[in-house]
Amino acid sequence: GKGGMAFLLERDYDLVLPRRLQIEFSQVVQGIMDASGKEMTSEDLWQLFNQEYLQMHSPFKHISYHLSEEGEDGEVQAISASLQLNEKSIAISGRGNGPIDAFLNALALGVRVDNYEERSLERGSNASAIATVEIAGKFIQGSLHGVGIHSNIVTASLMAVLTAINRALNRVDARTQKMLLSNSKFKIQNSK
């Protein structure tokens, strides 16, 4: 069940999942188990979690970003990001009340974050961080989660957003995906 799955991931991989992510992932696990007729080990669960939430690099893949503050007290965050969209490098930029809001505004896909959590995976100042997001939007039925792991929490957060968006885009038909991705704010970068 959900509790056993969550226990194994926490015990063996120090992965503490928010409750709603546990529920979502348990549906993924159940689908695999129904198809195979086999129980899953903690290693199987980790590989499936990794595939579903950490290695989802299509259609968007993170390349780099730059943050800056604007306004008298730095109350506005600006982001410039380079992403890979399918096989093309694109540049996006946006502003918001923080890095995630600025990133979502730069993507301009009509997506919002309904829940966000972050935590350290290890102890010490050089520990990796995990960020989880739950997103919703016009083209998303219900909500979907994304996860990012990186030594920089902002990078982990942006990776989590991209994972969630990729999962959402991979669930819509090709025509809808093409319409959503033909956003004129995406600027194709010159190849060197």
Describe this structure as you would to a colleague.
By secondary structure, the chain is an alpha+beta fold. It is globular and about 55 Å long. A four-stranded antiparallel beta sheet has the order 1-2-3-7. A three-stranded antiparallel beta sheet has the order 4-5-6. The N and C termini lie far apart (50 Å). The model has no long low-confidence stretch (mean pLDDT 89). 40% of the residues lie in helices and 30% in strands. The longest helix is centred in the first third of the chain and has 18 residues, at 19-36.
What is the overall number of helices?
Answer: 6
Q: Structural class, judged by helices and strands? A: alpha+beta
Query: How far is the N terminus from the C terminus?
Result: 50 Å
> Approximately how much helix is present in the residues?
40-55%
> Which radius of gyration do the C-alpha atoms yield?
17 Å
Overall mean confidence score, pLDDT: 89
Helix and strand sequence: HHHEEEHEEEHHE
Any idea what the shape is?
globular
For the largest sheet, list the strands in their spatial order. Answer: 1-2-3-7
Proportion in β-strands: 25-35%
Question: Which segments are poorly predicted (pLDDT under 50) over 5 or more consecutive residues?
Answer: none
Major sheet = 4 strands, antiparallel
Number of strands: 7
